[in-house]
Amino acid sequence: xxxxxxxxxxxxxxxxxxxxxxxxxxxxxxxxxxxxxxxxxxxxxxxxxxxxxxxxxxxxxxxxxxxxxxxxxxxxxxxxxxxxxxxxxxxxxxxxxxxxxxxxxxxxxxxxxxxxxxxxxxxxxxxxxxxxxxxxxxxxxxxxxxxxxxxxxxxxxxxxxxxxxxxxxxxxxxxxxxxxxxxxxxxxxxxxxxxxxxxxxxxxxxxxxxxxxxxxxxxxxxxxxxxxxxxxxxxxxxxxxxxxxxxxxxxxxxxxxxxxxxxxxxxxxxxxxxxxxxxxxxxxxxxxxxx
Length: 291
Prior knowledge:
Strand content: 15-25%
Number of helices: 11
Keywords: Repeat, RNA-binding
Structural class: alpha+beta
Protein name: K Homology domain-containing protein
CATH topology of the domain at 13-84 and 98-127: Ribosomal Protein S8, Chain: A, domain 1
GO molecular function, one term: RNA binding
Domain K Homology: 12-80, 96-183, 212-282
InterPro entries: KH_dom, KH_dom_type_1, KH_dom_type_1_sf
Strand order of the largest sheet: 2-3-1-4
Shape: globular
Oligomer: single chain
């Protein structure tokens, strides 16, 4: 990392979240937690790893940028070691690259991508990497997130969600796995809505939109608005139906890289619509970082 960036005042506290597969997480933790303990001590960064039996886990790095960069380099070194070890008995002739997936607040994705993809292209060309962790940190510091960020939490992929007895479950084959985060969201919606919540066959519950209405605005980068609308408006209609909220997307404004989204409905409807939109954005951002 260029020392001039640090001298320029960017050595401040930052939080970065990485999405990793369970096997990678196990390697980062190490035997009896020795590996992650060493990373914490040597980098000075706070390193937390999400709980759960999901295929993917979230590793959260927090601290001054210098500590974040040190933790990044130690994680990369560990993953490189794993790749080298796996190639010992392999017939592969070329060493695969190290891949890190960074989960970025949707409101900051536009700044990272840049107009017409110019910023992400610049980062790729200047670093020789698809994207570079240090450069991403700099952009995130220069462009703080807007509004409320709902953190992405991995759940079993592609699993239908049902509610029964006030609890949320992800259906996998013949098994129903409890989903405490979705249960909390469901309970919050029930507490906030003064009207009964009727079950629906959509997986989520249908929220009575006749409760006292209010409005909430979100700002979404132009580059990501398509994933919210979906093909022929399929996704936005699905979010409207599931949440019970009215959702209006403003027309593009000349010179602006963002679009204004207005959500109207009961507090519970707005909360659920915002959750669904952010979940969609998180999924799209993860896909972008993987490409």
